[in-house]
TrEMBL record:
It comes from Bacteroides pectinophilus CAG:437. GO terms for cellular component: plasma membrane. This is Transporter SSS family. GO terms for molecular function: transmembrane transporter activity. It is found in: Membrane. Pfam families: SSF. Signal peptide: none annotated.
């Protein structure tokens, strides 16, 4: 008997590989164009690329998992991402494109010096490694939960996800990542919308959710904000504003646009695309809790999808997997750009291969992909780990925004010490749980306070300014 969901996934993968090969040929062995794809995308391609970056494992199965206990307010994760994208479009996009920089680390070196650049590179690698690894993990969880007859365990499914995600980026580069997001976003929307409609109205999910909320008034399942609370929602917004305004994988998308207008509007349209998916997945998580009250939060979305007809389950599976792929591939390209331009080609050994950047960049993608796969075996909670990884970007955003918007105030030494403070925040947050109580258990607030104080204090004391 044919496994319809798996066949749908394989057809989808085949289409993506065909697209990647086409984009690879189109790149004509141009190493810089392969990673940066600079000035190529129109408004709509920019929109689906930034939306594809945002809508990943944390934005789908992570939200459904959180909704098991927090209700519909879990959907604010994607809305926080959207707010960050809009802020970036209004504050950073034009400034970054006009600056001529292609990497955040390059900008840091020119503004804050080599010491700041080195620690910025470390920070960028940590942030993007964490995000990529979590997408492998989420992709593996989805495949194993919905295709237990195909994959023997989660580890095998995670390995399969890693191989496919890495190969898409390896073969086609940033061009294939951008164009493939047209397919990815379409699949995500079709799969999630169809699944939500079937679960809520054909499977009785809506009535069950309403009845569960009425029977358990202490748990705000149907509230759009009470479950996460104001502090939780604001914490997400702070983290996402940091991410969209300083992480290489995010800001690099602005450079792919043909014009400032395409970049700004693309980020804003992409922000609108992010919002519905989050709340639809939250709805599915609440419905899963209502229909399967004895279920486990981490399998909330996969379990409910297993009850759907094979065709719908396969379509939704491909859509959720596409969400992971879109984020993983974009971040793989961003991380590879950092390792290529800011690390390898800055060494004496790397300069020998400047005429072979196309081949070198492919090798770097393969190495980066393998390393992040190894990292993925160390994570458990998707949403919690994602928030920690992204929170580092709050420190880097002070550097980026301070240097571009307030160069006469930003001190040269503020770059190094602010990023160092952000790394120290992650360490102290993990070692001393009591800190969380002071900052409403939101690492974003802690990072914002510490990095903000350090950046401002060092800038006030430092007489040597960025400009």
């Amino acid at each position: 008997m044919f496994n319809i969901p798996f066949i749908i996934v394989l057809v989808y993968v085949a289409l993506l590989f065909a697209l990647s090969i086409f984009m690879s040929v189109k790149a004509r062995r141009d190493g810089e164009n392969f990673l940066l794809y600079k000035g190529k995308n129109n408004m709509w391609l920019t929109a689906v690329t930034i939306a594809g970056l945002a809508i990943g494992g944390a934005s789908t199965i992570g939200i459904a998992e959180n909704a098991f206990t927090k209700g519909l307010s879990a959907g604010w994760y994607d809305l926080a991402w959207a707010i960050g994208a809009v802020v970036c479009s209004l504050v950073l996009v034009k400034k970054l494109r006009a600056s001529g920089y292609t990497t955040i680390s390059e900008m840091t070196r020119n503004m804050y010096g080599t010491a700041a650049e080195k620690i910025m590179i470390v920070s960028m690698i940590i942030i993007q490694c964490g995000i990529i690894a979590l997408q492998y993990k989420a992709g593996g969880s989805i495949l194993y939960s919905l295709l237990p007859g195909v994959f023997s365990d989660v580890k095998t499914a995670t390995l399969f996800s890693f191989i496919i995600f890495m190969l898409i980026a390896f073969v086609g580069g940033m061009g294939s990542v951008s164009v493939s997001n047209i397919m990815n976003i379409t699949l995500i929307y079709v799969g999630v919308i169809v699944a939500t409609f079937v679960v809520l109205f054909n499977e009785g999910g809506w009535d069950a959710a309403v009845a569960m909320a009425a029977a358990n008034p202490d748990v705000p399942y149907m509230s759009l904000w009470e479950g996460m609370g104001v502090s939780g929602i604001l914490g997400w917004i702070v983290v996402m504003c940091g991410n969209t305004n300083s992480v290489q994988g995010a800001v690099q998308i602005a450079l792919t646009s043909r014009s400032d207008k395409d970049a700004v509007r693309g980020f804003q349209i992409g922000a609108l695309m992010m919002i519905p998916v989050g709340f639809l997945c939250a709805l599915l998580g609440v419905a899963s809790k209502a229909l399967y009250p004895e279920g486990v939060a981490s399998t909330a979305l996969p379990v409910i999808l297993m009850s759907l007809p094979a065709g719908i389950a396969g379509l939704t599976l491909a859509g959720l997997w596409a969400a992971d792929m879109s984020t993983a591939c974009s971040m793989l390209i961003g991380l590879s750009t950092t390792c290529s331009r800011d690390v390898f080609f800055k060494t004496k050994f790397g300069k020998r291969f400047e005429e072979k950047t196309f081949l070198v960049n492919k090798i770097i993608i393969a190495i980066v992909g393998t390393v992040t796969y190894i990292v993925s075996t160390q994570f458990t909670s998707i949403l919690g780990a994602m928030q920690k990884a992204l929170s580092l970007a709050i420190g880097t955003s002070f550097i980026v925004l301070g240097g571009l918007l307030f160069p006469k105030f930003a001190g040269k030494r503020a770059g190094f010490f602010t990023i160092l403070a952000s790394i120290a925040c992650i360490i102290t947050w993990s070692l001393f749980p009591a800190i969380g109580k002071v900052f409403f258990n939101q690492i974003g607030f802690y990072m914002l306070a510490v990095c903000g104080i350090v950046f401002i204090a060092v800038s006030l004391l430092d007489k040597e300014k960025v400009a």
